[in-house]
Specification:
The chain is of the alpha/beta class. The chain has a single domain (about 5-360), classed as NAD(P)-binding Rossmann-like Domain (Rossmann fold, 3-Layer(aba) Sandwich). The chain has 13 helices and twelve strands. The strands form three sheets. The chain has a seven-stranded parallel beta sheet with strand order 3-2-1-4-5-6-10, sandwiched between helices. Helix 5 runs parallel beside helix 6 and helix 12 (about 325-340) packs antiparallel against helix 13. The longest helix is centred in the first third of the chain and has 19 residues, at about 105-120. Bound molecules: nicotinamide-adenine-dinucleotide. The site of nicotinamide-adenine-dinucleotide has 25 residues, from helix 1 and strand 7. Nicotinamide-adenine-dinucleotide binds near residues 20, 44, 92 and 134.
């Protein structure tokens, strides 16, 4: 069930380097690019969780995997010179807010200097034509308002994770101005963009302190789900939503260059930005076996209450729109996890969901 014709066959045999390929989003991106017939390379540390989608779906079997630290500039450069990628999607990161309160320095080293290392290495590798730096909805200066943030609003970030991603955005725009400027495109031939997705959910995430993995752990352990910040609103979206956006964007960067070299939001429709308690209730109801949740009222580290993205730019200029609403997304997560618990072949489960996703009209 290979789908090489998606994206007009653009990714067939295309050399794509993913940093962070062993993580949750990176593994789904490898599975998707494999369906598109791409020649996939990855640079990351070992999978960050046990179990991991990377191991469960045996991604090593079809990706050229380099295990290395994004902070190790000379190793990264050596790999890039060996691989000669055409497209890079940069996702290697310390991606957790609560972890960033425990290890702020490391979070900045990985998320900020990691971006600097990658973009500086690109300057030495002549094959690269398109780069997408994956940051987050949390990179904006949060005003706790109800409107969605637009791409031209100020960067910020209260906690070290969000702030490090705001910094990674600033690094991106500095490299774009200084080294990959559109007015010199004929000379350097590189188009660099950044992408800000919402709260990404899907089967195969086992990270600490994220709602869906916490829910699945509570089911396996036979406990109630403990939720924090029940009224916090987040732009929840299935992992395939932003990944389809990144691939559309990198294709347009490759084909049309500077026109698309800017920042892009890829979030859900406004109606799907729900609060944590709504998602928890939906998960418990749809799992269907007497699972319940408790609200943890202990004091928690600061996290934003309202966070939405305005995605008009991606919709109008890239023609990207979300395909799955929140109900379908939750259904797919429940189905995925029931299959995982039943011991089904995880690569086929993911491939079927990829096919279902792209067969849903948008
Ligand atoms: N999951 C979400 O809800 C979400 C939302 C918005 C943005 N993002 C961003 O998407 C990207 C992927 O997130 P994820 O949820 O898949 O995270 P993840 O923790 O599952 O994966 C992180 C990846 O980065 C790699 N990595 C971490 N430190 C590294 C280092 N020092 N050197 C090299 N590789 C290193 C890990 O090995 C792994 O491959 C991150 O940049 C994250 O900030 C995630």
């Amino acid at each position: 069930m290979v789908m090489v014709n998606l994206f007009n066959g653009f990714y067939k045999n295309r050399k794509v380097l993913i940093t962070g390929h062993t993580g949750f989003k990176g593994s789904w991106l490898c599975l998707l690019l494999n369906q598109l017939g791409a020649d996939i390379y990855g640079y990351a540390l070992n999978p960050p969780t046990k179990p991991s989608l990377y191991n469960e779906a045996k991604i090593d079997e079809f990706v050229h995997s380099y295990i290395g630290d994004i902070r190790d500039y000379s190793n990264l450069l050596e790999v890039m010179l060996e691989v000669n990628p055409e497209i890079i999607i940069h996702m290697a990161a310390q991606p957790l807010v609560r972890e960033s309160y425990k290890i702020p320095r490391e979070t900045y080293e990985i998320n900020v200097m990691g971006t600097v290392n990658l973009l500086d290495a690109v300057r030495q590798v002549s094959s690269v034509k398109a780069i997408v730096n994956v940051t987050t909805d949390k990179c904006y200066e949060n005003r706790e308002w109800h409107w969605g943030y637009r791409e031209n609003e100020p960067m910020g970030g209260y906690d070290p994770y969000s702030n490090s991603k705001g910094c990674s955005e600033l690094v991106t725009s500095s490299f774009r101005n200084s080294f990959f400027n559109s007015k010199d495109y004929e000379k350097h031939g590189i188009a660099l963009a950044s992408a800000r997705a919402g709260n990404v959910i899907g089967g195969g995430d086992w990270a600490e302190d994220r709602l869906i993995p916490d829910f699945i752990r509570s089911i396996i352990e036979g406990n109630n789900l403990e939720i924090r910040s029940p009224y916090a609103i987040r732009p929840w979206q299935h992992v395939l939503e932003p990944l389809s956006g990144y691939l559309l964007l990198s294709k347009m960067l490759y084909i049309s260059g500077p026109k698309f070299a800017s920042s892009w939001n890829f979030g859900p429709d406004d109606k799907d930005a729900r609060n944590v308690e709504w998602i928890s209730k939906e998960l418990c109801d749809k799992w269907g076996k007497g699972v319940s949740y408790n609200i943890d009222n202990n004091p928690q580290p600061h996290e934003a209450n309202y966070l939405k993205l305005d995605c008009s730019k991606a919709k109008n200029e890239l023609g990207w729109t979300p395909r799955w609403n929140i109900e379908k997304t939750i259904y797919s997560i429940i189905e995925w996890n029931k299959r995982f618990i039943a011991g089904d072949d995880i690569r086929s489960v993911c491939e079927n969901q990829i096919s279902d996703y792209f067969n849903t009209p948008n």
